[in-house]
Amino acid sequence: MSEPLYRVDDLHRTYRNGGREVRALAGVDLALERGQRLGIVGESGSGKSTLIRLMAGLDRPTAGQVWFEGTRVDTLPERRLGFLRAEVQLVFQDPRSSLNPRMRVGDIITEPLRSRLVRRALPPDTDHRARLAEVLAAVDLPADAGDRFPHEFSGGQRQRIAIARALAPRPTVLIADEPVSALDVSVRAQVLNLLTDLVAARELTLVVVSHDLMVVRHLCDRLVVLQGGLVVEQGATAGVFAAPATGYTRSLLAAIPRIRS
Amino acid sequence: MTLLEIDGLDIDFGRRRVPAVRDLSLRLEAGGRLGIIGESGSGKTVTALAVMGLLPENAHVRGSIRWQGTELLGLPERDLAALRGNAMSMVFQEPMTALDPTMRVGRQVAEAYLLHRGEATTPARERVLAMLAEVGLDDPERVADGYPHQLSGGQRQRVVMAMALVNSPDLVICDEPTTALDVTVQARVLATLDRVLDAERAACLFISHDLAVVSQVCEQVVVMLEGRIVEAGPVSELFGDPRHPYTAGLVATARLDLVEPGSRLPTVEDFYAERGTP
């Protein structure tokens, strides 16, 4: 059997909060195949964000293992994580806080390419200007957007900038943490369309964390439900929606606000 | 008599007169529920703050806001303060910023009560505990004696609702009251709000960017875009047959459950292209 792109084995993460122990993850197993689109859902405090931080190598587990393309990454020193930093990119919830307001958009987008760690994992002849023009076009932003500052853009456009930055090092995996939650409803559709198109065109593996189950249903073919740091249900998205196996998943589905008329 | 009547409301900010609200008119009858939908910057919150008399000093307001027939614009601050928190009250989006982190929860709710009653009336604690129970908090004594940080997000928002309702107001303005909450908590808080508004016979002005949430609470809705109302009507009509391209786009995006996963979603721009700018 071939090795999955991501493998997470019995992952634990415990935080200490003023003498009190908070168990964010309490033994999570997960396998993610190349090209899959995985949605992670659960209430706040269920461990969603902790899980993706560990997968992206932004945090270290208390116990357990994270494997990426057959390499164990949770124990690697930072200087050897360059390949992960290039291949796995993140898009965060709020583009107001994830984009440096003092940097020009062009510098923000090409920053991953200039990182000492990531640079080594990229082809040596990477042309930053050409790459910038290419990713700006990919997210439907004007070519001169690179010369401007984040505050000159609307919320939806800023999330496009964050996506462009994530695309710059040609990642295999895109991890999006609540990618449309902070956006106005009217621009949500645009950003969802953009993500769908990019994932298809670039054959990206997608991980989406969201409390909005309808967003996950739209973007993801697989679904993992977290509760209290444990996976309580997983499977094909359509299957889980049609026949949730646990009461917790049923309660999440029942709570989706619907238009009452 | 109509509870709240707004006519031709214009609001600008600062010396450069940046427009925030333009020619806004609406009516709210006693016990009625009106939703205001729009995105950030469309003027929803500014309108609510104008009703409450809470606009900053650099705001220029023209038009008319009448409360049970009395003009509120130009009313002395003393008279507005008597209304605020008593006849009309407000629930904000972020309960942690609406609550004082250093004060016990019970005292904060009692403060809102005593401010309009004076110290000598019925024991405040009794009223506070009853109110906390009414908004669905299980152990009102323990909640009242605790601090905000000891509560969950949903519990905090219930406390804020208790503060807003403790004086049995005629109008409660809710500004994105559940946006910061988990979906499961949101569903329960909305159900509670619905019940408590009925029990107190209070009218509600419900501000949200979420159509589905508004439809849970309100019968009537207005859609705001760039400071103006672009569409108004009963919830069912407006959602079933939106006239304005912007509303059509909002409704389409809100019905993610109706589209094939992964298919292209219709955007607001599509509806503008299709129907033209009215």
Describe the structure.
The complex is a heterodimer of chains A (261) and B (278). Chain A is of the alpha/beta class and 261 residues long. Helices cover 37% and strands 25% of the residues of chain A. Chain A is built from 11 helices and 10 strands. In chain A, helix 4 packs across helix 6 and helix 4 packs parallel to helix 7 (155-167). The radius of gyration of chain A is 18 Å and the shape is globular. Chain B has 278 residues and is an alpha/beta fold. Chain B has helices at residues 44-52, 77-83, 95-98, 105-115, 124-134, 140-145, 153-165, 183-200, 211-217, 235-240, 245-254, 268-275, and strands at 4-13, 18-28, 33-37, 59-67, 70-71, 88-91, 171-175, 203-208, 220-225, 228-234. A 6-stranded mixed sheet of chain B has the order 6-7-8-3-9-10, with helices on both faces. In chain B, helix 8 (183-200) links the parallel strand 7 and strand 8. In chain B, helix 4 crosses helix 5, helix 4 runs parallel beside helix 7 and helix 5 packs across helix 7 (153-165). The radius of gyration of chain B is 20 Å and the shape is globular. The interface between A and B is large, with 34 and 40 residues.
